[in-house]
From TrEMBL:
GO terms for cellular component: voltage-gated potassium channel complex. Pfam families: Ion_trans. The keyword Cell membrane applies. This is Ion transport domain-containing protein. Its main location: membrane. One of its GO terms (biological process) is action potential. It is a multi-pass membrane protein. The lineage of its organism: Eukaryota, Metazoa, Chordata, Craniata, Vertebrata. The chain crosses the membrane at residues 20-40, 52-74, 126-144, 188-212. Residues 18-218 form the Ion transport domain. Residues 220-274 are annotated as: Disordered. One of its GO terms (molecular function) is voltage-gated potassium channel activity. It is found in: Cell membrane.
Length: 274
């Protein structure tokens, strides 16, 4: 925000700047408290810190405290203008990491969790897609450079590396229009790159889509099972009922055997004369 940056350069802090600082402090304090509680409840601290979402939490929380320490260390009179310039650069870099707060939504969003699971399961497909794009880019960039520089006399395609940018945005069907082939051979190359980009991206995308759909269904079923405790209660009641029936059968069987033995002895005594 330009007005807050101007105040920061002048060393001032308006009520608006102070309110934003207080709001960020409250949010970071809540995030830190939550992270501390989850770390205390974790059985394995090493496994807890290796979790990707927890790593994102650390990268999102630490910049606030580091920026506070850097700001205190770079106060006027402590180290001069050079220290202030370095501290300002460090603070800007750390503030850029605060956008990782958005990734915390993955804990509560089924769609973001499905996306992360899909990326993890389809690492090979993503690598294959990147390989296709790189091969096609290495093929069409020199061709369009040759067609435009030698036949079209255009200055947009000044070199082959500069033509790589055009190849990428053409094969991904973005088409910014900052580099456009004008000659007929260049347009033919452009048409070939666009059609090949559509086909090359369509092959892995179908597999990625099916994996995303399957991951979404699995996470949704897990969420429904965790939210509804009725099946667990039914299983517990069934187990308790079966255990009770087994105990009753076991307690009744000796009595039944004893009564049967007694009745058979009475019949035998009646039948045999004394």
């Amino acid at each position: 925000m330009p007005d807050i940056r101007a105040e920061e350069e002048r060393g001032e802090c308006s009520p608006k700047c102070r309110n934003l600082f207080v709001l960020e402090t409250v949010c970071v304090a809540w995030f830190s408290f939550e992270f501390l509680l989850r770390s205390l409840q974790a059985e394995s601290k090493c496994a807890f810190l290796r979790t990707p979402l927890n790593i994102i939490d650390i990268l999102a929380i630490l910049p606030f405290y580091v920026s506070l320490l850097v700001g205190l260390a770079a106060r006027p009179g402590v180290g001069g203008n050079k220290l202030l310039e370095r501290a300002g650069l460090v603070l800007r870099l750390l503030r850029a990491l605060r956008v990782l707060y958005v990734m915390r939504l993955a804990r509560h969003s089924l769609g973001l969790r499905s996306l992360g699971l899909t990326v993890r399961r389809c690492a090979r497909e993503f690598g294959l897609l990147l390989l296709f794009l790189c091969v096609a880019m290495a093929l069409f960039a020199p061709l369009v450079h040759l067609a435009e520089r030698e036949l079209g006399a255009r200055r947009d395609f000044s070199s082959v590396p500069a033509s790589y940018w055009w190849a990428v945005i053409s094969m991904t069907t973005v088409g910014y229009g900052d580099m456009v082939p004008r000659s007929l051979p260049g347009q033919v190359v452009a048409l070939s790159s666009i059609l090949s980009g559509i086909l090359l991206m369509a092959f892995p995308v179908t597999s990625i889509f099916h994996t995303f759909s399957r991951s979404y269904s699995e996470l949704k079923e897990q969420q429904q099972r965790a939210a509804s405790p009725e099946p667990a209660l039914r299983e517990d009641s069934t187990r308790s009922a079966s255990a009770t029936a087994t105990e009753e059968d076991g307690s009744q069987s000796p009595d039944g055997a004893g009564s049967a033995g007694a009745s058979s002895e009475g019949l035998w005594a009646r039948a045999v004369p004394t």
